[in-house]
Amino acid sequence: MSSAFSAINTIQPLHRTIDNPSVSPFLGSTHKLRSFPACNRAPSASSIRRQFSVVAVSDVVKQQKTKSGSSLSNLLITKEEGLELYEDMVLGRSFEDMCAQMYYRGKMFGFVHLYNGQEAVSTGFIKLLTKEDCIVSTYRDHVHALSKGVPARQVMSELFGKTTGCCRGQGGSMHMFSEEYNVLGGFAFIGEGIPVSTGAAFTSKYRREVLKEANSDQVTLAFFGDGTCNNGQFFECLNMAALWKLPIVFVVENNLWAIGMSHLRATSDPEIWKKGPAFGMPGVHIDGMDVLKVREVAKEAVERARRGEGPTLIECETYRFRGHSLADPDELRDPAEKAHYATRDPIAALKKYMIENKLVNEAELKAIDKKIDEVVEDAVEFADASPHPARSQLLENVFADPKGFGIGPDGRYRCEDPKFTEGTAHV
Amino acid sequence: MERDARVCVMGEDVGHYGGSYKVTKDLANKYGDLRVLDTPIAENSFTGMAIGAAMTGLRPIVEGMNMGFLLLAFNQISNNCGMLHYTSGGQFTIPVVIRGPGGVGRQLGAEHSQRLESYFQSIPGIQMVACSTPYNAKGLMKAAIRSENPVILFEHVLLYNLKERIPDEEYVLNLEEAEMVRPGEHITILTYSRMRYHVMQAAKTLVNKGYDPEVIDIRSLKPFDLHTIGNSVKKTHRVLIVEECMRTGGIGASLTAAINEYFHDYLDAPVVCLSSQDVPTPYAGTLEEWTVVQPTQIVTAVEQLCR
């Protein structure tokens, strides 16, 4: 059993990886770690809270796999679950591919950030949630919204800027919201969604403890990237979430690049999972290209939060196959690195697992592929046919209570002026 | 807080300490540590947390220990507080109240003597009110809490010791309305927060000199109550704005523009705006005094306007 200190010695020196970015320093990390021992102090409540072990999930998966061959009862998923996961990932991939096409055809504009390659994280986590659980994402949010259940039609319409979009066309690619499915955004500035997710988790706890709603155990997931992990809001929220034991899981989608800035060039200690124990929560590193591994760890973390034991920080090693956005020429990333991760395509991996373990046959998967193609085509047709917002929509939704526009010279509230409903009033 | 269990408070030292100016005194004893939440020193994050809580059904009141500290929360106030209702297509409301003591105090130094009204006023989607008396502080606070819109309530460091008899029965004021302090005929003086007292002091002198100023506490910094203000301008034809905000891009600047736009025909003279100097508030007492508008300056300005 290695202590935290000896574990650091076994990690390859980081300088090497700058020259050879395709060799990640933490592939297949198999060491068990403990949080730093509370030295010279009598165990106080807070130090007792910190004595948990941090386990890399590949251990869990390896243990399960080596148990007894590949009999169906030892598989990580059932056939139904497998098909659900496959369908969700294929939906994410096909949708994003269609976005690229539509963008270049001039149907959507601005900054569009695609999720290709990272599907295992979204599917692995979000498919475990209930409808009442909340998710918060960044600008790379289309697939998170889809996994949570927002219909593809609504997301595509939003991207086209039509009134039938989930945000009436007012948000766009980077601001996907859904009250019905508890998608709390969609944020353009990285890091600014993490406090919002912390607030949603706070509400869950408040409901249970102050409002005495015994069933209130909603969990919130916050998704963000490696670049965000150097931002103050990340650290401030890790602190508050651990301090108050909020039901939240912080999911880092470490795809190694923040636009053109390599994670290794931006971060003094690039192993993000280590930052969890520093704040008093478990920090886990997992292979984010394998949906089954993601799901195993996610299950534990979500259950932990639901039981009221507090937050978890999960670093998913993943990769985006496309550039940062559709405007990114993506010149800095080494083709060898891209090729390496292409071999770890999460959809191909799940397909291989299910076929080799005889959970499904090719025909069933092809049927799903076809179904998703139709869903995505339908979404595009729907979005195309939907109307653009009329001018009358301009001033709606600025205020929940439009009295906030104030009282006009004639003594009436300005929002009662018909120019407001026409959208031609000047605010 | 008693009426609605969803109302909660978040801020530094609001709980056990009772608030840096004792605004939340004893509330933690009554309502517990979760409803009156002592936060770590992380303005941006706990303001964002309040916004997330508001989106999911609570009604938080965020206290900036000093309003100036809310500069650290500008990201959340501008992007999320103001904009989320719009960018979500109306799906989520943000019924937060953001409040705290601001303004120029007694030699508190530049950073603790800031007037943030001007910085926040352009953010679409928020309302801003400034209270100035115990009566309107209570009424505006209640209105802000009950509003579905995010409201920033500006209190003033030097006004916490005011005493006034206020009604026992519940009352809620209107967030968008201005307050007629002293009706008059000769000139309209528009003011808010602490400068109201400087204006009223000047008004005593002016009355002795034979002037009849109409004093209006605009209270609602965004949006302006154009009805009360307009009626006054139509009556007196002269406007003096007295504010503690900085000159550049301040509330007075916006108010001047609005009056010129809507009531230009009724003016007999250009709108005069007395604001604080555009300087970081100096520590030295004498310099600090010359930074803000003093009653003698108000008297002189009225005399000039009414010539």
TrEMBL record, chain A:
InterPro entries: DH_E1, PDH_E1_Alpha_Subunit, Pyrv_DH_E1_asu_subgrp-y, THDP-binding
CC cofactor: thiamine diphosphate
Key word Oxidoreductase present: yes
Enzyme class: oxidoreductase
Pfam families found in the cross-reference section: E1_dh
Keywords in alphabetical order: Oxidoreductase, Pyruvate, Thiamine pyrophosphate
Catalyzed reactions: N(6)-[(R)-lipoyl]-L-lysyl-[protein] + pyruvate + H(+) = N(6)-[(R)-S(8)-acetyldihydrolipoyl]-L-lysyl-[protein] + CO2
Example of a GO biological process term: pyruvate decarboxylation to acetyl-CoA
Domain Dehydrogenase E1 component: 88-389
Coiled-coil blocks: none
GO MF annotation terms: pyruvate dehydrogenase (acetyl-transferring) activity
Enzyme Commission code: 1.2.4.1
Subunit structure: Tetramer of 2 alpha and 2 beta subunits.
NCBIfam families the UniProt entry points to: PDH_E1_alph_y (TIGR03182)
Function of the protein: The pyruvate dehydrogenase complex catalyzes the overall conversion of pyruvate to acetyl-CoA and CO(2). It contains multiple copies of three enzymatic components: pyruvate dehydrogenase (E1), dihydrolipoamide acetyltransferase (E2) and lipoamide dehydrogenase (E3).
Annotated protein name in UniProt: Pyruvate dehydrogenase E1 component subunit alpha
UniProtKB/TrEMBL annotation, chain B:
CDD domains (alphabetical): TPP_PYR_E1-PDHc-beta_like
Superkingdom of origin: Eukaryota
GO annotation, cellular component aspect: chloroplast
Catalytic activity: N(6)-[(R)-lipoyl]-L-lysyl-[protein] + pyruvate + H(+) = N(6)-[(R)-S(8)-acetyldihydrolipoyl]-L-lysyl-[protein] + CO2
GO molecular function annotations of the record: metal ion binding; pyruvate dehydrogenase (acetyl-transferring) activity
Pfam families for the chain: Transket_pyr, Transketolase_C
Keywords: Chloroplast, Metal-binding, Oxidoreductase, Plastid, Potassium, Pyruvate, Thiamine pyrophosphate, Transit peptide
InterPro entries according to UniProt: THDP-binding (IPR029061), Transketo_C/PFOR_II (IPR009014), Transketolase-like_Pyr-bd (IPR005475), Transketolase_C (IPR033248)
Chief localization: plastid
Cofactor(s) essential for the protein: thiamine diphosphate
Domain Transketolase-like pyrimidine-binding, chain residue ranges per copy: 1-162
EC number: 1.2.4.1
Places the protein is found: Plastid, Chloroplast
Job description of the protein: The pyruvate dehydrogenase complex catalyzes the overall conversion of pyruvate to acetyl-CoA and CO(2). It contains multiple copies of three enzymatic components: pyruvate dehydrogenase (E1), dihydrolipoamide acetyltransferase (E2) and lipoamide dehydrogenase (E3).
PANTHER family, per the entry: PYRUVATE DEHYDROGENASE E1 COMPONENT BETA SUBUNIT, PYRUVATE DEHYDROGENASE E1 COMPONENT SUBUNIT BETA
Subunit structure: Tetramer of 2 alpha and 2 beta subunits.
NCBIfam families xrefs: PRK09212.1
Protein name: pyruvate dehydrogenase (acetyl-transferring)
Organism in which the protein naturally occurs: Actinidia rufa
